[in-house]
Design goal:
The chain is 59% helix and 0% strand. It starts with 5 loop residues before the first helix and ends in a 6-residue tail after the last helix.
């Protein structure tokens, strides 16, 4: 509600890099443990974009 974008939300100090790293690890995204927070945020955004793309592909088109 108070953030303009996902990136703004994840950049907040309260969202620690370890949380983002653990989330990506549970989703099967393999990244080096020393990755900086801004790179983890980009990996998360890329992962979500890929997931959205797959969901859109799975959605059947309406019959006309």
């Amino acid at each position: 509600m108070y953030s303009q974008s996902v990136e703004d939300l994840l950049k907040r100090r309260k969202v620690h890099r370890e949380v983002i790293f653990k989330y990506l690890a549970t989703q099967g995204v393999i990244i080096p443990p020393a990755t900086e927070k801004h790179n983890l945020i980009q990996h998360a955004k890329d992962y979500w974009k890929k997931q959205l793309h797959w969901k859109l592909k799975e959605t059947p088109e309406p019959v006309k």
